[in-house]
Amino acid sequence: MSYNLLKGKRGIITGALDENSIAWKVAEKAHEHGATFVLTNAPIAMRMGEIKKLAEKTNSEIIPADATNVDELTNLFIKSQEVLGGKIDFVLHSIGMSVNIRKNIPYAELNYDYFTKGIDVSAFSLHKMLSVAKKLDAISEWGSVVALTYMAAQRTYPFYTDMADIKAMLESIARSFGYHYGLDKKVRINTVSQSPTKTTAGSGVKGFGDFYDYADKISPLGNASAESCADFCIAMFSDLTRMVTMQNIYHDGGYSSTGVSVDVMEKLGKL
Q1: S-S: 90 plus which of 75, 155, 237, 260, CB 3.0-4.6 Å?
Q2: Is the pLDDT of residue 271 over 90?
Q3: Quick one: 170 exposed, middle or buried, by C-beta within 10 A (0-12, 13-18, 19+)?
Q4: 61: exposed, middle or buried (C-beta count within 10 Å: 0-12, 13-18, 19+)?
Q5: How far apart are CA 208 and CA 217, in angstroms?
């Protein structure tokens, strides 16, 4: 159901790879709620995904950009304003990549070149985007920036290896930049810590299936879906949350506040 929460708002949505990705769902929901926006991703990711299909569905233009490249990000924000006809009201940062995870390298044996690449792609990219936007004065006052994260930034999940450290940095950047951008332009910056979600990226993590089931049993509401995460992002982009900034908000069915569930204890008792 659409309440036109984003009617008249302009945005940039990063990271939409295929219909399983959270960014894809956010784009669909933003379109339903009356927003206009551009889609962006790294050229290599665009070749692997189906972003053109999403662009057609949402009447959006695609502007390729490597989120680690300041020049390309500058072009992204300049062209986005030209295409959309004004300043940007919301930005979704949905960018994450770990070469160490892809290559099944354990945490204690990390390849540091891969680690540095992961930091640049998944965390520094948020700082670079915000820095470029601030210099260009590209985001409207009371605009909203949301970055997707995961609770491994606070708790240890062995299979999440270097991405846990990277997400911790991402959340710190959101808080730190949130202060400066909020003070100067009233722009709000938050991170959304989502449940394990069956996306292309998430499913690539070793042991993901078992952990997904475990988290679902722990959470009193069950795991939050990609679609429900998209609904929450829309709320964070809207004027209804205009006084929320510098927060890491858990969207996980209660998992982050649950020590153990009766269901899990019963299953353990049957072993």
Answers
A1: 237
A2: no
A3: buried
A4: middle
A5: 14
> Who's near 66: CB < 8 A, 6+ residues apart?
42, 43, 72
- Which token pair is 217? 């049993």
Q: Give the DSSP H or E segment for 17.
A: none
Distance CA 220, CA 255 (A): 7
Q: Which two tokens stand for residue 25?
A: 């769902």
Split at pLDDT 50, 70, 90, the class of 118 is very high
pTM of the model: 0.94
Distance separating alpha carbons of residues 101 and 105, to the nearest angstrom: 6
DSSP 104: T
CA distance 203 to 146: 22
**pLDDT (average), residues 114-126:** 98
Residues 167 and 122 sit within 8 Å (Cβ to Cβ):
yes
The DSSP code for 195 is P
The pairing of strands 139-149 and 88-93 is: parallel
At 148 the three-state DSSP class reads strand
pLDDT at 75 over 90: yes
Alpha helices per DSSP H over 103-252: 112-119, 125-136, 161-185, 208-218, 226-237
Distance CA 133, CA 184 (A): 13
Question: Hey, which residues does 210 pair with through a beta bridge?
Answer: none
CA 119 to CA 190: how far, in whole Å? Answer: 19
Instruction: Report pLDDT digits (tens) over 165-222.
Output: 999 999 999 999 999 999 999 999 999 999 999 876 666 566 677 889 999 999 999 9
| Beta strands in the chain, from DSSP E residues, in sequence order | 10-14, 36-40, 61-62, 88-93, 139-149, 188-194, 248-251
Which domains are assigned to the chain?
A: 10-207+223-258 (3.40.50.720)
